[in-house]
Amino acid sequence: MLTATLITTIWAQPKFKILHTVPGGLFSGLTFDAKGNLYGVTGGGGVHKHGTIFELTPGAHGWNLNTLHTFDGYHGGTPNGGLIFDAAGNFYGTALGGPGLQDGALSTK
């Protein structure tokens, strides 16, 4: 006789913590620098509502949000990818709606 036994297992529930809300919505992933700061882009938000490049720095009471750049739509807007760093610590990213609302734009720090 073949008997099957069902064993129930309680799976560990993942625990997530919101580090900080970012106005304009995250468009892509985040990038760490060598100091432990996080960098990213928003697809909207900022003064002109065309997106931002931001930095999150760890602080004693959580993460602090610093807006590094606000896109105006004419000089790029709606960043459409993440940021990458080179060996010197400069970061690069791309955005739609480049010069004169044509093509796209490449951003650097």
Q: How does this model look, in words?
A:
By secondary structure, the protein is mostly beta strands. It has a domain at 22-87. The chain has no helices and eight strands. The protein has strands spanning 31-32, 38-42, 52-59, 62-70, 77-79, 84-85, 91-96, 104-108. Strands 1-2-3-4 form a four-stranded antiparallel sheet, with no helix packed on it. Strands 5, 6, 7 and 8 form a four-stranded antiparallel sheet that branches. The protein is globular and about 50 Å long. The termini are far apart.
Q: Averaged pLDDT, please?
A: 79
Give a quick account of the main beta sheet: strands, pairing sense, barrel closure: 4 strands, antiparallel
**Anisotropy-based shape:** globular
How many runs of DSSP E, i.e. beta strands? Answer: 8
SS-derived structural category: mainly beta
**Low-confidence regions:** none
* Proportion of helical residues: under 10%
- Number of H- or I-type helical stretches: 0
Q: Widest sheet: strand order?
A: 1-2-3-4
Topology as H/E string?
EEEEEEEE
Beta content comes to 35-45%
End-to-end distance, in Å? 71 Å
Rg is: 20 Å
Secondary structure layout:
Elements: E1 31-32, E2 38-42, E3 52-59, E4 62-70, E5 77-79, E6 84-85, E7 91-96, E8 104-108
Short description:
With 109 residues, the protein is mainly β.
List descriptors.
109 residues; 8 strands; 4-stranded antiparallel sheet; mainly beta; 37% strand
